[in-house]
Amino acid sequence: MHQTVLIILSLLLGTSCQSNTKNERAARNSPDKEEIVKPEEQELQKYETAYFASGCFWCVEAIFESVKGVKEVVSGYSGGTQKNPKYEQVAAGKTKHAETVQVYYDPSVISFTALVQVFFGSHDPTTLNRQGPDHGPQYRSIAFYKTEEEKKIIESYIKALEDHDVFNGRTITTQVTKFASFYKAEEYHQDFERKNPNNPYIKAVSIPRLNRFKENFKDYLKDDARH
């Protein structure tokens, strides 16, 4: 019911994760609401990476950014075969990519298993090719793995969710996919929620989704995300 209300509200506001001309222009030109200091590429090499797709990457990026042990999150595209895809192509469903986040994390602080819990706990993995008001294969649910151990962790967690009937009989449609490549999205998509807090989609969909996650995963939050 709550998700239905969000969908209706989003439709009334004419919002979706897909950038129309007006939204894209605002995203490109909007000044940052806060100074965002990004880590250097050399520093990021010290961290492990994980990759997840669960709907609009504006939302997913903000969720993982709030998790302790996560150093950086990058929005991009994965799960397809075309090299160097552009947002307009992905959004139109012309490539096989999904909107994906690259998560740099410190395994001494948070485990891959915990990141998988965050992934499944922050979206509905039973809605095929849809998340909230956004629909199409580019918004499908994918848990990527780089090793057989990561694959085992993901599959075991899915089995546990099914055994405990967490989703009330609904089938989990999440793809468990071997990671192949990741393409960083255009710069205006990076930290979109933090840079555009007054964007209608952010206010109607992203922030409520982030707040629901925070309410359910308080122990996983960074200190500065506990508000």
TrEMBL record:
All copies of domain Peptide methionine sulphoxide reductase MsrA, residue ranges: 49-201
SUPFAM superfamilies: Peptide methionine sulfoxide reductase
Catalytic residue positions: 56
Catalytic activity: L-methionyl-[protein] + [thioredoxin]-disulfide + H2O = L-methionyl-(S)-S-oxide-[protein] + [thioredoxin]-dithiol; [thioredoxin]-disulfide + L-methionine + H2O = L-methionine (S)-S-oxide + [thioredoxin]-dithiol
A Pfam family hit: PMSR
Domain of life of the native organism: Bacteria
NCBIfam families: msrA (TIGR00401)
Protein family according to the UniProt entry: Belongs to the MsrA Met sulfoxide reductase family.
Protein known as: Peptide methionine sulfoxide reductase MsrA
Gene name per UniProt: msrA
